[in-house]
Specification:
- With 185 residues, this protein is an alpha/beta fold.
- It has one domain: 3-Layer(aba) Sandwich (Rossmann fold).
- The chain contains 5 helices and 5 strands.
- Strand 1, helix 1 and strand 2 form a beta-alpha-beta unit.
- The protein is globular.
- The protein starts with a strand and ends with a helix.
- The model has no long low-confidence stretch (mean pLDDT 97).
- Bound molecules: flavin mononucleotide.
- Flavin mononucleotide binds next to helix 1.
């Protein structure tokens, strides 16, 4: 079998055992063997400041390298005030620079938004998609992943216990695997 495509899974929440992280971990478990998912947390990633670019902080370099080596990027994010959390926007800004050397350029992307509410992070999902357009990232369109009512989807060990949500995430990650393979043909 050819080696699997590597996927950097960028998690948009810093929370220990947050629902976004747990969802990312669930997707990693459900992924077909054509994909290898590596979770990228944004802990310790400092604020973007163009003044520092001449001697970029090591945490920026490390983040950019994790994206550069990946064959695809999967974003798993909560919604904050109907948009993406600031830490995720900062990561996008860090990865997109220096100008002309964006780590994200042309990488196939997927977007999974999660929420404890019913709307499933629709606002975050589409604000993120706006960034991905500018970042020149071909993005899986269907199925869309607005994962709502996530608050009771995991047990104490972090395992997904909601069959409907688990089934949907399996459908999603299989579709993403097909999409990534198509993009790399
Ligand atoms: C600052 C802040 C803003 C939030 N805004 C929204 C929102 O606009 N829509 C929503 O569905 N949930 C919102 N929430 C609730 C999040 O869905 C919930 O905190 C979720 O657990 C965050 O994901 P995490 O568990 O991965 O950290 C907000 C939470 C915080 C802390």
């Amino acid at each position: 079998m050819p080696s699997p495509y590597s996927v950097a899974v960028v998690v948009g929440s810093l929370r220990n055992n947050g629902f976004s992280l747990r969802t990312a971990q669930t997707l990693a478990k459900l992924a077909p063997d054509t994909l290898k998912l590596d979770i990228v947390t944004l802990e310790g990633l400092s604020f973007y400041n163009q003044d520092l670019e001449a001697n970029a902080p090591s945490d920026w370099v490390a983040f950019r390298d994790k994206i550069k080596v990946a064959d695809a990027v999967l974003f798993v994010t909560p919604e904050y005030n109907r948009s993406i959390p600031g830490v995720l926007k900062n990561a996008i800004d860090v990865g997109s620079r220096p100008y002309g050397k964006s780590a994200f350029d042309k990488k196939p992307a997927g977007v999974v938004s999660i929420s404890i509410g019913a709307v499933g992070g629709f606002g975050a999902n589409h604000h993120l998609r706006q960034c991905l357009t500018f970042l020149n990232m071909p993005t899986l369109q269907q199925p869309e992943a607005y994962v709502g009512m996530i608050g009771d989807a995991f047990d104490d060990k972090g395992d997904m216990v909601k069959d409907a949500t688990k089934g949907f995430l399996k459908t999603y990650i299989d579709a993403f695997a097909t999409f990534v393979a198509q993009q790399h043909k």
